[in-house]
Design goal:
Rossmann fold, N-(1-d-carboxylethyl)-l-norvaline Dehydrogenase, domain 2, Thiol Ester Dehydrase, Chain A, 5-stranded antiparallel sheet, 13 strands, binds 1,4-dihydronicotinamide adenine dinucleotide, binds the ligand C[N+](C)(C)CC(=O)CC(=O)[O-], 6PGD_dom2, oxidoreductase, EC 1.1.1.108, carnitine 3-dehydrogenase activity, 3-OHacyl-CoA_DH_NAD-bd
């Protein structure tokens, strides 16, 4: 049964949660008293639709329904997960939790997006305090996987399972603390940046350059400790601390001091920020950010590292293991086209068609039992010939499928016909691909193992009644 999320507060973060849940196949009900909420949420949804599916090499589940409802009770009554994302004011959040708990199911998970409040503060005066926990996300919630979870162990363990299912990276904190873990870092960096601007040392643009051309790039892949372990050289972490530990005693940092946010300082920051980024609207900046994040996370996927390894594991979960119904056309690829597959002509680059044919052949190989274990045993298929015909264009964000027909599959020969189709079912391109079964030891062609040729024969028989694809 389709699960339901209730989002209370549909601003920057609530909208991001709504998109994350809906694109993971959940129905979403949003309550927000702002008459502009519907427009704002639909803009976040549009951003999410063009970016989140591009992180995946497989199709996402069908999108859930998203609706704005007139009362908080309408949103929460049936919900499996309720996410409070109202302004960062404790009295507002208390009122909301009281209303949530008088209408919601007893087994509903009730998370708060709070950036700084501890669960014990959120729970003050609540009907069932232990049910309220912190689920702190990062903007944009539909792309960044981290969620800091703080609260009752059993409840946050249940929350952890749900978040993993929707492709996120829950991080359970051992103890509650103001501003959790990640925002403690962000606050330290923010405080130092304010000083640097106030003291006229650097502008907003120079500070951003200091981050994005240097340690910011490192942090996205290894974080703080692994990066510094490497920086310690062969002598390692202890040596690193010995060398740089004393800096904390030197005047490198103003960490304990907070600059006063005077009108002058706010004006200085705002005008520097306008000079730096004012040429773009916020929506344009969001799209630039999202495209960059998708490209960076896709690179990490190729390395199976960090956030990329998480995405690969999520793809495996989404793909499932069950055999398709072989009496129907075989779908070997179902996915969205990522932005980094497109080129200066504004459409998918020709090299990526080769990628899709290769992915389709790999999927077909797994279906006939020529899977990873079979390849490890010393046998595989090599492509000997491909003929691609381009018939239409394909753009970033398009959802496409590859339908693969087995034209020939006897002995060592395997001939496949792939049709790349867009979401309207139109053929974008076709490929006639000829493969030979090989021994990876001799590098010569040979007949496949009996279980592979038998499976191939049974699929060809199951497909016999289907019409032959056009132009094959
Ligand atoms: N903006 C950010 O970068 C991040 C914010 N957060 C947290 O997320 C929460 C929401 O922040 P944003 O989305 O940035 O704020 P926002 O101002 O964009 O959105 C808040 C929304 O709550 C609505 N609202 C006000 N009173 C309400 C009520 N009684 N019931 C339901 N909705 C109500 C407002 O109309 C508004 O649409 C805060 O607790 C914040 O600390 C967490 C991570 C990052
Ligand atoms: C600025 N902030 C404290 C609201 C930031 C966050 O809470 C997380 C984020 O997305 O940076």
């Amino acid at each position: 049964m389709t699960k339901t999320a209730a989002i209370i507060g549909g601003g920057v973060i609530g909208g991001g949660w709504a998109a994350r849940f809906a694109l993971s196949g959940w129905n979403v009900a949003i309550f927000d008293p702002d008459p502009e909420a519907e427009r704002k949420v639909s803009e976040v949804m549009a951003n999410a639709r063009r970016s989140l599916p591009a992180l995946s090499e497989v199709a996402l589940p069908p999108e859930g329904q998203v609706k704005i409802v007139p009362t908080l009770a309408d949103a929460v009554t049936e919900a499996d997960w309720i996410q409070e994302s109202a302004p960062e004011r404790l009295e507002i959040k208390h009122k909301i939790f009281a209303e949530i708990q008088s209408h919601c199911r007893k087994d509903a998970l009730i998370g708060s997006s709070t950036s700084g409040f501890k669960p014990s503060e959120l729970q003050q005066g609540a009907l069932r305090p232990g049910e309220i926990f912190v689920a702190h996300p990062f903007n944009p919630v539909y792309l960044l996987p981290l969620i800091e979870l703080v609260g009752d162990d059993a409840t946050t363990t249940r929350a952890q399972e749900v978040l993993t299912e929707i492709g996120m990276k829950p991080l359970k904190l051992r103890k509650e603390i103001d501003a959790h873990v990640a925002d403690r870092f962000l606050e330290a960096v923010w405080r130092e940046a304010l000083w640097l601007i106030k003291d006229g040392i650097a502008t907003t643009e120079e500070i951003d350059d200091a981050i994005r051309f240097g340690f910011g790039l490192r942090w996205g892949q290894m974080g703080l400790f692994e990066t510094y372990r490497v920086a310690g050289g062969e002598a390692g972490m202890a040596h690193f601390i010995e060398q740089f530990g004393p800096c904390l005693q030197w005047p490198w940092t103003k960490l304990m001091d907070v600059p006063e946010l005077t009108d002058d300082l706010v004006q200085k920051i705002a005008s520097q920020s306008d000079a730096q980024s004012g040429a773009h609207t916020i929506r344009e900046l969001e799209r630039i950010r999202d495209d960059n994040l998708v490209s960076m996370m896709r690179s990490l996927k190729g390395r199976d590292w960090g956030a990329g390894a998480l995405l690969n594991a999520h793809d495996t979960r989404l793909e499932g293991k069950a055999d398709p119904d072989f009496t129907k056309p075989i779908i070997t690829v179902a996915r969205a086209i990522p932005i980094d597959w497109t080129d200066y002509n504004g459409h998918m680059n020709e090299s990526r068609y080769g990628q899709l044919w290769s992915d389709a052949a790999d999927a077909l190989m797994r279906m006939i039992g020529a899977d990873d274990a079979y390849i490890k045993s010393g046998f595989s298929y090599f492509t000997a010939d491909t003929h691609t015909k381009f018939r239409n264009e394909c753009h970033a964000g398009d959802t496409v499928t590859v339908v693969t027909t087995i034209l020939e599959g006897a002995g060592k020969k395997l001939r496949l016909f792939h049709e790349l189709k867009n979401s309207a079912g139109d053929v974008v391109a076709t490929c006639n691909q000829f493969l030979l079964h090989v021994s990876l030891e001799t590098r010569k062609s040979c007949d496949p193992a009996a279980h592979v040729s038998d499976k191939l024969a049974s699929i060809i028989a199951a497909q016999a009644a289907l019409p032959k694809p056009e132009h094959s």
